[in-house]
Specification:
By secondary structure, this protein is of the alpha/beta class. Helix content is 54%, strand content 13%. It has 2 domains: 223 residues, Flavodoxin domain (Rossmann fold); 73 residues, no CATH class. The two termini are 27 Å apart. It binds flavin mononucleotide. Keywords: Membrane, Transmembrane, Transmembrane helix.
Amino acid sequence: MKKVLVVYYTQSGQLLEIAQQIAKPFIEDDAFQLDYHQIKMKNDFPFPWNGDEFFDTFPETFKQIPQELQPVNPEILSTDYDLILFHYQVWYLTPSIPINSFLKSEEAKQILSGKPVVTISGSRNMWAYAQEKMKVLLKENEASLVGNIALTDRHNNLISVITIVDWLFSGIKKRAFGIFPLPGVAQEEIESSDKFGKIIKSYLKNGNFIGMQEELVANGAVEFKFFLVSMDQKGNRMFNIWSNLILSNPKKRKLLVQLFKYYVICAIYILSPIVNIIELILYPLLWVLKIKRQKKYFQGV
Ligand SMILES: Cc1cc2nc3c(=O)[nH]c(=O)nc-3n(C[C@H](O)[C@H](O)[C@H](O)COP(=O)(O)O)c2cc1C
């Protein structure tokens, strides 16, 4: 019997729904044992969020400072799993604090060391450089990344900012102001994600993951959008400056976090459209110089 462990953290329940869909083909097959580990914080984050707490989480998230977690069930710690399905969300272009805290724990090392891992992210749309940080964290745990699925909100970037803020600050997945589309990963996409489970299961059965990522991508597991990756990269540079500034001035933290909030709003609604237009004009040149190469890289593992 092959043993599979699903690891996840979720505030809204969206990632659990995705995890359960992907796990379906394993549950329906007697040849597999499937266990869940829900990452739980000692002091959990609020959901719904309020504005102050939401932005105040930024520096520690971006600097990947771990916080205390509740212990892992000893049965899980003593099981030798054949595959880990690792579900995570992105906070500030970085794996969320609960995910980062788990991956920096001794327990994670015990579970992940020497194991194949498939990462599954459920984010708004900016996951690419968070996945790079995941690669580092998995390497530190001596795990081997064999697959990646990145599920996102596929609506326009400026619209999905409005709809996600409405969702995260109300705690309810609804049409913002009654006119905007629903936030988060589309329900149809969540419900059809058992197709990824089927693909992963067949490779696990054969004991070989070669070719699996290509098949996942061919089935829609990773959409590459150059503009988003480009914003993600620029955002990481600016977030580095802001997080250093906030953490090195604890007495002015409140003021600096407020300024950071205004910076983020300006960056999304003023700077990013201008950069997008420039990149659209240069698109053919950028395709030759880097887009083609980046697409291959970010759709791989
Ligand atoms: C504090 C915070 C920061 C976030 N930052 C990002 C981000 O940088 N990029 C992104 O695509 N999504 C971002 N999101 C959205 C999350 O990745 C995720 O889709 C959403 O919080 C739902 O996750 P859940 O499974 O915990 O409910 C952020 C969410 C929170 C709460």
